[in-house]
Every structure is written in C-alpha cells, then in structure tokens.
Amino acid sequence: MTERPARAARTVTRGAAVAAAVVVLVTAATAVLVALAAPGDSLRVTVRLLPLVLVVGALAVVAVLGTAVLRARTRRRSTQRLEHAREQARRFEQEARTRFLARLDHELKNPVTAIRAAVAGAGDDAGPEERARSLATLVSQSTRLSALVADLRKLAELGTQEIEDEDVDLAQVVRDAVEDVCAQADAAGAPRPAVDVALPTAPWPLPHVRGDVDLLYVAVYNLLANAVKFSPPGTRIEVRGTDDDGTVLVEVADAGPGIPQDEVGVVFDELARGRDARGLPGSGIGLALVRVVAQRHGGDVTLRSRVGQGTSVRLRVPTAGPSGGGPTVR
Amino acid sequence: MTGAPLVLLVDDEQAILDGLAPFLERSGLEVATATDGEAALAAHGRTPADILVCDVLMPRLDGRALVRRLRSDGDWTPVVLLTQVGESYERSAALEEGADDYLNKPFDPQELLARVRAVLRRAVPGQPSLTASDVLVSGGLRVDRAARRATLDGRPVALTPKASLLLDYLMTHPGELLTRERLLAALWGFESMVTTRAVDHRVAEIRRVLDDDPAAPRFVETVPSGGYRFCGDVRRGARG
C-alpha cells in the first residue's frame, strides 16, 4: 500500500518538469519571433570562445550523465521485475513440490499400513483363513505400491526420454481409444459407455500430426477413461476433433459431476485426486501424463468444468511435430 | 549334487536375497547368493553357476560391469539383469553389455522364475547367446542390430524405431511365448497406464513390412489369448 503515494509523488514531479520545459521553450520562441518581426532592430550576442566551450562541454556531460542515470534506472527496474518473476516461479515450484510430497505421503501411507497390519495378522497364532487373507492383502498392496512407483517413474522418464517423430493420424487414435474403452467395459461386465464421436470429414478430415503414436494414444485413452469413470451410467460422452489451422484439437466432454473450481487448477499435478474421486480406483497420474505428452508434442491440455454439469478437456497437438523438452527420434 | 541348475543371485539388498532364494529353491533350482559384483565373481570362480541373476546398482562392482567382465573373459554364462533406474537407458545398455534378459524392479517372483527358465532353455553351454550377437538371421530376414538395419531377401526394409526394438526382442527370444503385458513392460516401460494395443499395432507394422501372413506366419506368430511368439529359426550372423 505504501507504493501508491510514492508513485503519485513521482508523477507530480515529472509533471512539474514538463511544465517548466514548456514555459522555457515558449518564452524562447516568443523572443525569437519578436526579434524577427521588428525590422530595424537587431540583436547581437557576443560570446567568448572559452565559456562557450565550457558551457557546451558541461551540457554534454550533463546529457551523458542523465542518459546513463536513466538507463541504469530502467535496467534496475527490469532486473527487479525479472527477479520478482523468478521469485514467484520459485514459490510456485516450491508449493507444487510440497503438494506433491503431501500427496505421495498419503498414497504411500495407506498401502504400507495395510502391509504392516497384514504381517501382524499372519503371525504364528493366526489360523489358516486369517493367514490366507493376510497373504492376499500383502500381494494386493505391494502390487498397488509397485504400480504407483512404476507410473511415477514412467512419468519422470517421459519428460526427458526420446520420443518418436512419425506421422500420426489422431482421428484413428481417437477411434481406437473409443473402441478400447468400450471393449474394456464389455469385458468387465459394465454397461457400455455412450460415446458420441464427431470427427470432421468436410471440407477435409483431421490433418495428421507428427509425434509418438503410442504416447498420443495413451493421452487420448486416459482422457476417455476418465470421462467414463466419472460419468454416471447412461450419460453421454462426446469426443470432438477439430482442425484449427496448424493445430489438431481433441476435446473429450462428459456430463459427470464436474470438478470444484478450487481443484481445477491442480488436476494436472502428479498424484492429484479430487475430493470426490477418493473412492474411485486410480493413482492420480493419468492427467499429469496427458499434460507431459501434450507438452512433449509442443501442444497443451486445458480443462473446463462446472459442478453438476460436467467437464471438458481439450488436448491440442500442433501438426508440426514435437518441440522442446528433450531429444526426438527421426 | 541335486542336478538342478545353479542360480547365483546377486543383490546388495539382503531382504531381497532372503525372499527370493528360498522361493527359487522351492521352485526346483539350486541357489547361491552374493551381495555385490566382486563377491559374485569370486563365488562364480569357485563354483561356476548355470545362470546369474544380478541387480544393476550394487557397491564395488555393479551388474553391468559384472556382465562386461564375464564377457571379456569369454564367459558366456547367461545373465538376467534386474534394472531399476532410468529404464529406457538401462534396457538398451543391459543388452548391449551382453546380458541375456532383464526385468524391471519391482517384479513378480513368478515372472523372474519364468525368465530364468526361458534363458536356461535357450542357452547353449559355452556359446554366446543371441542377445550377444551383432547380426541375427532368420530365413531371408537379416537384422544388423548394431546398425539398426534390416533386410528381407537382400532388400532393405524400413521399420519405426519401436517396431525395430520389438522385432529385436522377439528374435532374441525365439520360440518363447511373450505376453502383450510382458512386451509392454519390457519395451515401452508402461505397467498400468495403458492397454496393450500399442503392441498389436507394432506387430501389425512388422508383419506389413516383412510381408508376413498372420494365417501362415514365417516370423511372428499370434498365440491366441496369449501373446506373440517368433516362430522362425534364428541364428547368429556375421557382419559385412
């Protein structure tokens, strides 16, 4: 709050200086005009060389010093702005890291607690039934831990590993992913998800993109699987493909419960799990993975959601191919 | 002497040795253990093992250096490496050093047992394995592994890097049923985040490029509700 009066004082000083300069200029111009308009009168100014040189020299020094001061001030301000931005980035990074560690702590504690409980329950005095139950817990919880570790490692690796740079038909990727989520629902005996697919055919089909077909498949599949997971049976899921001049957009929209506004900003974080998603299976890696895949292809992913109405996620992939973030294979 | 193959299990984590050794013994193998590469070399020198199962990260002499040391001494005892860090890199490095197979940690002990048995079945005592060969040949198919080039009946064929990696893996495990999940974990590094369609796509690419008829395959055979198997005979080839 102390910045505002200081800024006001600076503005007043600058205004006064400009006004003074205007007065001096107007006076000088008037004097010259009067001299020119009065014929017969003449104005002779005699100046000695040495004082003239001294005055001009002094004016030049003042001008140079003034410019230097102004430049230094500008530089200092831009350095301050840069430092401020860096500090803010550091703070965001620190906050994200703290959030990640808190979530990791939570994700690890439960299976480890279950394992310790199972070990205690399989002691010498345990009956065969109790021992079998404990063993089953040991297997399932250690499998859960393995999957979590593998997913996190894969996610870390994806940020830097070489990715392929080949021709990819995203429309085909979308069709494959839809077919797979439906086949999986069939295999699990669950109701078949109602997925509407709208891929353009006129004036032309979706252009192909460059990249890694397996990773793009993983990204689209994850978006679809999420939509299916959070949609009540019978509600529709819409998948749209759009050619947006150099970018292919794949949008997956559901009419599920939606995500509270305060969680929308962090859903792409590693291990992020919504308050309402705690009871559902999943490690919270899926959307983080989609984000990394999008970034590795030079694109991005964004999410819009309204509680009670649904969620729409947009994956954008430029047709030009992967850029930044690591080497590519050609 | 029980006549069972002798496995030398090498890991610096005693808890892993304590769990795996009895499991492998119960599965009909004879087991010796060592806690680092140097100790493993000494134990193998005293009583040659039929196969070594080695962790990669170990004090004194790590798993890959151990494989290098054995191979440079002309010792072709099969080695299965247990990798865990930076898996893409370790995957290729493990095979380039001359390991016969690798498993990503954490793994299912049953899966390790299956790997060990498969490697022992393929191994010819005293002979380098297919994974140590620069060139693999199956009928008219010739794969120069170091140069990553393949030819079919003398004509060069173009495979994407991932299909090339998959063909290499299938050819170095001939006759062995490789499930989609196993291939996905070994070659893609995915465990639980994706369906196995990626594997099917690449097999389709290999078949298309090699003009291999799935109904009468010369190279890659589909095992219904199982996975894939390289059905051609594979032999070592010479470069040049």
TrEMBL record, chain B:
Transmembrane segments: none annotated. GO terms for molecular function: phosphorelay response regulator activity; transcription cis-regulatory region binding. The modification 4-aspartylphosphate is found at residue 55. Residues 6-120 form the Response regulatory domain. Residues 133-232 form the OmpR/PhoB-type domain. GO terms for biological process: regulation of DNA-templated transcription. Pfam families: Response_reg, Trans_reg_C. SMART domains: REC, Trans_reg_C. SUPFAM superfamilies: C-terminal effector domain of the bipartite response regulators (SSF46894), CheY-like (SSF52172). Keywords: DNA-binding, Phosphoprotein, Transcription, Transcription regulation. The keyword Transcription regulation applies. The keyword Transcription regulation applies. Signal peptide: none annotated. This is Two component transcriptional regulator, winged helix family.
